[in-house]
Design brief:
single chain; 71 residues; alpha/beta; 3-stranded parallel beta sheet; 2 helices; 34% helix
């Protein structure tokens, strides 16, 4: 992949470890982006790219997009 977006910080660290165990360097070979702005990221070097977003608009749309599809 050209990059990976990881949803949660614990999974993000697991992916880094998984890739390192296989000799794949982050971010040189596979850039990772976290969708979770975890406070632990301040201790990481190189810095962790992360997205800060408000999930409220997405959560509000879920009932409209799933209405009638759940049985």
């Amino acid at each position: 992949p050209t990059a990976m977006i990881i949803e949660e910080a614990p999974l993000f660290f697991a992916v880094i470890q998984f890739l390192a165990n296989r000799g794949i360097r982050v971010p040189q070979q596979v850039p990772l982006i976290s969708a979770d702005a975890d406070p632990a990221f301040v201790w990481c070097s190189p810095p962790i790219s992360h997205i800060r977003w408000d999930p409220a608009p997405v959560i509000q749309r879920v009932p409209a997009t799933t209405a009638g599809s759940v049985r």
